Amino acid sequence: MSTKVAELASLVSRETPAVWISNLWDKYNMQRNGKIEEWKELRNFLFATDTSTTSVSHLGWKNTVTIPKLTQIRDNLHSNYLAALFPNDRWLRWEGYSQEDVTKEKQEVIQAYMSNKVRESDFRTLISRLIYDYIDYGNTFVTHDFESRKKITKDGETIPGYIGPVARRISPLDIVFNPLAESFKDTFKIVRSIHTLGEIKKMSMDEPENARMHEAVQKHTTLSTRMGGYKVEDVDKALGFSVDGFGNIQEYYQSNYVELLTFYGDYYDAETDTLYESQKIVIADRSYIISQEDIPSWFGHAPIHHVGWRLRPDNLWAMGPLDNLVGLQYRLDHLENLKDDAMDLLVHPPLKVIGEVEEFVWGPGAEIHIDENGDVQELGKGAQGVAVASSEMQAIEQRMELYAGAPREAMGVRSAGEKTAFEVQTLDNAAGRIFQEKINSFEINCVEKVLNDMLESSVRNMQGSDVIRVMDDDLGVAKFLTITKEDITASGKLRPIGARHFAKKAQDLQNIQGVMASGMAQAIAPHVSGQNLVKFIEDVTGTSEYKIFSPNIAIFEQQETQRLSNQAQEDLEVEQATPIGEEE
């Protein structure tokens, strides 16, 4: 071994946990290469402007038109999923587990605090991105952090910014785990992230749980400086590892980026015969440990949650709604370009030249000089095949909508036949059961879990007090609450009820309308509470803030109207009975 190789080997001394975490990442990342290629093919179809960038390009058609059916289904699913999750501003509810945690004051404080934080941290925008993962990859991964942003002015004054929990998206391409584990909660997780040196510096300043990240910047900078004097060959011989996305390890060190691998889970140290449980280990440059600690969450498990669209047996990597529609999209583009080429041949067919014919330009009014035995003929084709292809394409598009579980009635596609309003509502609910089940799963396994993690992070990291702005429903004005750590410390659970409440309201309204329109309505009329029915309609329609419904309000308003009418009548009679001169 040369002197330079030995020097490099000692310079980049890889610590033991860093080695096996890197190897674990490489192993499980390599095993899913086939799935990653499928995701890439789907992505090419979703964002294609023509077939030249898709797998249809090798068919060799003259036309390169792509029908964006997959893209349309994706947009339809995304907009309806998002609308179901956030149907109104009251989609978040607190449920306490003890008598003192279900009081109205405790409920209002926790709901007001979390509603403020999800609004200020752009939670809805993040959920929108997670829904795209749910549709595109079939797998969504989410975690959270606690941020304490601040700005220092030129005068040295510190201006506090957002302080509170934030949800974070993890790309399905940046996480590996054991897909054969019994559940996602039971397996280890390794999350890969690439940051610039400046981003890591800012993370160490804004996020209390990542305060030691600045060590990665210092070590990376030192190694980059010292490695600049070595040749590529020496580096390749001394260091037998590389970083994904970079040509070699020297190219990586010369860049402005730092790779972090974060391990969550249990591991066994054979040298010391020690089992370490619920550990969080952060390594940089696949060489050295930045931090190793117990997972800080009070829940005792990694703060990463996973939800899959179509679950597989004995495999945690789920399928997406578009995965098995790629073949139909391929067929759709194939038929479209075949049809277009056939139409081109039909409108402008090739010519068959027989015998001696002088050179000519084919077009209207063209003169063609032909010898005695010469001739020019069009090789026309019939249009029957074009009509068949168009009919088949329409059928394929309808099947793709059904297979994806898209709510077709919600996007204005009405099924054939005359129906009453009740029948339309019944068919709509039945046709949307796949859609409803998928969005309920997303709400329970993703949104609900990350919200409770965010609340736990707030209780664990909050210092002092926090002032939030809320609206007073009774007065309709803004007020400010000062919230402390004790105010949001409680035993219970946050429940997003947007999608579940949305479906239940539609079903309940349908049932009530059916009962009231039937012959039973007259029999049960003496036992129906009008005021409770008003509360039900107010909740279903979501119009409580308008104060449309109030007990017997119509009687009081009619009384007030009658009083004003009587007063106006009296004034008119007095005016008519008064002589003109007296009036003057």
**Radius of gyration, rounded?**
34 Å
Number of strands: 16
Instruction: Look at the structure and give the mean pLDDT.
Output: 80
Helix content percent band: 40-55%
Strand order of the largest sheet: 4-5-6-7-8
Question: Shape from CA axes?
Answer: flat
Structural class: alpha+beta
Low-confidence stretches: 4-8, 233-238
Report the sheet with the most strands, covering strand number, pairing sense and barrel closure: 5 strands, antiparallel
What is the number of helical segments per DSSP (H or I, 4+ residues)? 19
The N- to C-terminal Cα distance equals 123 Å
β-strand amount: 15-25%
In short:
The protein has 19 helices and 16 strands. By secondary structure, the chain is α+β, with helices and mostly antiparallel strands.
Descriptors for this entry?
single chain; 584 residues; alpha+beta; 5-stranded antiparallel sheet; 3-stranded antiparallel sheet; 19 helices; 16 strands; flat
